Amino acid sequence: MKERLQLLQEAAVISAESANRCHKISELIETRLKVDTENEQFQMLIIHLARAFDRINNGAPIDHGMDDEMFAEIMMDPIFPQVDILNREIIRIMNVVVPKAENSFFLSNILSLYYSVSEEA
After folding, report:
1. How many angstroms separate the CA atoms of 9 and 62, rounded?
2. Per-residue pLDDT tens for 69-81?
């Protein structure tokens, strides 16, 4: 994942700060979920976080979050408490104030990753 983040940084798709923080986030997730770094959902999550970090830092976060009904379903999922804890750790590493719209997609992607990892096991 580090190499992929570096390539995105070199191509000016993400900032150096975003690449650095998302590398730390990827290590946290790898350790916590025992995820294979080739997992497509894992890679999608890390890239999403990197792009979101830069959007937020540049004062241009997304305006509209996930559909309210869909987000309510995510919050009712039995593993949502675990997802929420991991999300809070990710946001601490990012060290930015994450708007509600961005956060709804963070939580959705993390939940998808949890299920993707459990399917691989």
Report:
1. 21
2. 999 999 999 999 9
Residues in the chain: 121
Phi, psi of 66 (to 5 degrees): -65, 150
Q: How many domains does the chain have?
A: 1
Q: Tell me the residue range of the domain where 79 lies.
A: 2-120
- The angle, 0 to 180 degrees and rounded to 10, between the axes of the packed helices 80-94 and 100-120 is 120
Name 67's Cβ contacts closer than 8 Å, sequence gap at least 6.
none
On whether the CB atoms of residues 61 and 55 are closer than 8 A, the answer is: yes
Predicted confidence (pLDDT) per residue in 48-102, tens digit: 999 999 999 999 999 999 999 999 999 999 999 999 999 999 999 999 999 999 9
